[in-house]
Every structure is written in C-alpha cells, then in structure tokens.
Amino acid sequence: MQVTLKLYASLSDYLPDEAKRTNEWPMDVPEGTTVGDMIARHQLPERLVHLVLVNGHFIPPGSRASRVLAADDVLAIWPPVAGG
User: What SS3 state is found at 62?
Assistant: First the structure.
C-alpha cells in the first residue's frame, strides 16, 4: 500500500535527496505497518521525533507503536522546536 512520509526541519536530513525539496516521500509499505515501524525503518532518533500526525491528527507517543497506517495515509513528523 502507498503512504506518504513527510519530515520537517532537521528530520528532512533523513529523506532521500529527491524528496528533500518537497519534504514528502511517497512510498510503498506492507499492510499492517505502524507509525512506530516507520520511525524505526527510517532510523529517526526518538529524541527528535516530537510532533507526529497522521492525516492531520496527533498521535501521542504511547500510541505510535500500535497505530496502523492505511493506504494513502500521510505521516508527518516534526522535531522539537527551540528558539524564540
């Protein structure tokens, strides 16, 4: 099934070069893939995975390992933001 992974700010370094311009990476993943699987598969450091949304809905840290993705879902991840 196809899902889209969007990584923002410093996490965009984990995207392939061709996806860095748009911060968007459409990809095929197996049925049953979870948000946690995607984070692990792309070796995103847990300390940098702060705000996680699926189709615009917040996924709290305790639900990420069990939240199964569906076809055409958009998984967006932001690191913690600092500054002012």
Answer: helix
Q: How far apart are alpha carbons 11 and 28 in whole angstroms?
A: 20
| 49-63 residue pLDDT tens | 999 999 999 999 999
* Confidence grade of residue 83 (pLDDT, cut at 50, 70, 90): low
Residue 5: strand pairing partners? 25, 75
> Per-residue pLDDT averaged across 39-48, rounded?
96
Task: Give 69's DSSP letter.
Answer: -
How many domains are there within the chain?
A: 1
CATH at 54: 3.10.20.30
Q: Is position 84 within any domain?
A: no
CA gap 70, 5 in Å, rounded: 13
* Two structure tokens written together for 38: 């995607």
Running DSSP on this structure, what letter comes out for residue 9?
G
In a domain, 60, yes or no: yes
* Within a domain: 83: no
